[in-house]
Backbone:
């Protein structure tokens, strides 16, 4: 099947089959996944279904969503699955990480059909293997880098922006919050408290604690914020110069501005790298164990958090290299 032919077919009046629509509703209502995650599942499975349909029926066959039923999915075998994975690799040129995500979408969907709605005779996706992903160590700022970044904010002449932007970046660096989580904070969340509840990934709630210095920095900003609003009402903690809640994009732009001022390459360092920085520094210097770090970051899986243990491996390597026995050889 040629790549061009396949994508030409995708453009033809494709409508999702009922089974897939029901599954996406299940992800929303029962699993509580975010709209973005559900959108990605839908896109991945749209392409998978179309590929299998044309593989079995021929490229000239007219797509009909009514044919995507129980019998259709039971007719899929292992060779179909691996043919699709090969297509992603050789024709679409997906990297191993993207292929792994798409395979996960298929496996989760098949598990739903086999376990939850029981329309499959067997779940053949269980044997579908994901490609090996060569994980990179997370990029993060060192303690001296953090100082440079914070110092760059102090050069901002506008007092409101200086107080606000310092509070934003300090909050990122001390809590490891996600961008969407920080953008959603309301002023009532942080008044007279050292902790507050946020809604994170997958609509899951968790408690975020802030230290004494962070409380002071936030309170200093709030005092300037209230002067700037001049008795106008706004529920958001972080507001723009237009006195509206700052968007995620606006916060990203702000952080990029200071990263550049501090001399960092924004193609390498980004808002998300501040989350990596918080996690890595807490693990390395704060004596925070990996399971506590998992809770702080709101990771569902401990495996996700374990990327930050690379710093321990660096320490081990350094210790080995310092072994005095090496000097006698």
Residues:
């Amino acid at each position: 099947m040629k790549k061009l032919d396949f994508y030409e077919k995708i453009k033809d009046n494709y409508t999702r089959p009922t089974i897939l629509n029901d599954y996406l509703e299940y992800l929303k209502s029962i699993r509580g996944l975010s709209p973005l995650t559900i959108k990605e599942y839908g896109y991945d499975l749209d392409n998978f279904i179309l590929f299998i349909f044309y593989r079995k029926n021929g490229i000239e066959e007219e797509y009909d969503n009514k044919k995507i039923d129980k019998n259709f999915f039971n007719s899929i075998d292992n060779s179909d699955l691996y043919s699709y994975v090969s297509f992603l690799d050789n024709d679409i040129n997906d990297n191993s990480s993207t292929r792994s995500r798409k395979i996960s979408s298929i496996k989760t969907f098949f598990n739903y059909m086999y376990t939850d709605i029981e329309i499959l005779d067997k779940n053949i996706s269980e044997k579908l293997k994901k490609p090996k992903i060569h994980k990179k160590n997370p990029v993060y700022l060192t303690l001296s880098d953090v100082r440079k970044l914070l110092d760059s904010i102090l050069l901002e002449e506008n007092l409101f922006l200086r107080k606000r932007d310092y509070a934003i970046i300090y909050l990122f660096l001390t809590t490891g919050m996600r961008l969407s989580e920080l953008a959603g904070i309301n002023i009532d969340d942080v008044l007279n408290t050292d902790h507050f509840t946020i809604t994170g990934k997958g609509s899951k709630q968790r408690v975020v604690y802030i230290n004494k210095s962070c409380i002071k920095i936030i309170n200093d900003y709030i005092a300037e914020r209230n002067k700037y609003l001049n008795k106008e009402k706004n529920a958001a903690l972080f507001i723009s110069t237009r006195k509206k809640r700052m968007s995620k994009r606006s916060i990203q732009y702000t952080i990029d501005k200071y990263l550049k001022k501090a001399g960092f390459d924004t193609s390498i360092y980004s808002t998300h790298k501040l989350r990596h920085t918080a996690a890595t520094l807490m693990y390395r210097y704060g004596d925070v164990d990996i399971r506590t770090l998992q809770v702080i970051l709101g990771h569902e899986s401990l495996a996700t958090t374990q990327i930050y243990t690379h710093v321990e491996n660096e320490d081990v390597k350094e210790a080995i290299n310092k072994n005095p026995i090496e000097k006698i050889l």
Q: What stands out?
A: Strands lie at 195-199, 205-209. Residues 35-57 form the longest helix (23 residues).
